[in-house]
Amino acid sequence: MTVTRTLLTSLCLLLSLGLSGHALAWDATSHRLSAYVAWEALAPEQRQIFSALLKKHPRFQSDFLDVMPANIMLADQDQQDRWVFGQAAVWPDLARSFQADDLIRYNRPTWHYIDGAWIRGDAHQGNVYVGVEPQPSIHGESTGPIEHEGDVSNVVQGIEFNLARLKHPLSSSSEKAIALSWVLHLVADIHQPLHSGALMSSTLFATGDRGGNGISTQSSNLHSRWDGALRNQPFDDTLRRMNSFVRQADLSAIDMNVDTWLQESRQILYEFAYPDEIKAAVLRSERRGTQMSAFALDDDYVSEMQAISEDRVTLAGMRLSVALGAALDR
Fold it and tell me: Which residues touch 288 (CB under 8 Å, ≥6 apart)?
């Protein structure tokens, strides 16, 4: 049913580092963890630049200062700046609940995920087909500047567009602050396997299961279970493990090809996210003409999901630190 953690760790971390040769993506816990990993890897002067930039965010007062926890308000400046940095990584999800003009101005729902049929460069199809012929691939545009945000339609393009806006000398401070928030968020999003494709079948999921949202599990759905995989782990202990790994890694060897990041998530989607039991249940329900009942994720699956998620969030944080450092160099 599962891929071993050793194999997945090698895939997600060692190979990516070069050491051996629809719904929300992640919850606030995982987004904040990836941002804190990046923060730890940034130099103090880089942190200061990004902290100053985020103070130019057009909703800094309402979405940052006004919701800062009391214990953070009483902490030192570095702790406050780190919390703001993490809040920026969460902010694009907050924008989903904005009202009126601010909803139109800031919410970008299609930026958080990608159509599983979309391919480019190192990325192959991300859909898992059960009892149905694969759909034709959608060949994405080559890597290049995207001049207008209206041309951004998925998480890959969202990362590229916002990194370019962050680097651009003519971007205003407020534009750069928003772009920084989106970069922090989307680099984590693309490392969530269930934001890279979907399961498709002949009748139950003829247009896809929306990255696991259509697969009911105990009190939730498959997508939500992945989003919250790290929620119940002790936050400080998880962050400590992540930072310990990063300190031993060679960040100069990390793979910074966004298409590769996407393909890593898709390989996990193929090999682990939809186990044979789920595929069989889909086929059985279609044969009987019934709806699928809630699927029980066993302890082995949950444990493996948590391990994979921790690896992916760590890797997202490492790549964030490299991408943001390069943006300042530019």
Answer: none
Query: 7: pLDDT confidence band, cut at 50, 70 and 90?
Result: very low
Q: Which residues of 12-48 are buried (b: 16+ CB within 10 A; e: fewer)?
A: bbeebbeeeebbbbbbbbbbbbbbbbbbbbbeeebbe
Helix then strand then coil, in percent of the chain rounded to 5, is 60, 5, 35
pLDDT score at 17:
37
pTM greater than the 0.85 cutoff: yes
Per-residue pLDDT, 307: 98
The per-residue pLDDT for 24 is 55
CA separation for the pair 314, 312 (Å, rounded): 5
Tell me: pLDDT of 192 over 90: yes
User: What is the distance between the alpha carbons of residues 115 and 239, in angstroms, rounded to a whole number?
Assistant: 31
What pLDDT sits at residue 10?
A: 40
State the angle between helix axes of 155-167 and 173-189 in degrees (0 to 180), rounded to the nearest 10.
150
CB of 209 closer than 8 Å to CB of 7:
no
- pLDDT one-digit tens code per residue, 265-293: 999 999 999 999 999 999 999 999 999 99
Query: Is the dihedral angle over the CA atoms 77, 33, 124, 127 positive or is it negative?
Result: negative
* Nearest in space to 326 (alpha carbons), one of 279, 258, 276: 258
Domains observed in the chain:
5-329 (1.10.575.10)
Phi, psi of 216 (to 5 degrees): -70, 140
| DSSP designation for 112 | G
DSSP 8-state assignment for residue 233: S
**Residue 303: CB atoms within 10 Å:** 12
Which residues touch 300 (CB under 8 Å, ≥6 apart)? 1, 2
Q: Residue 57: what residue type?
A: H
pLDDT at 144 over 80: no
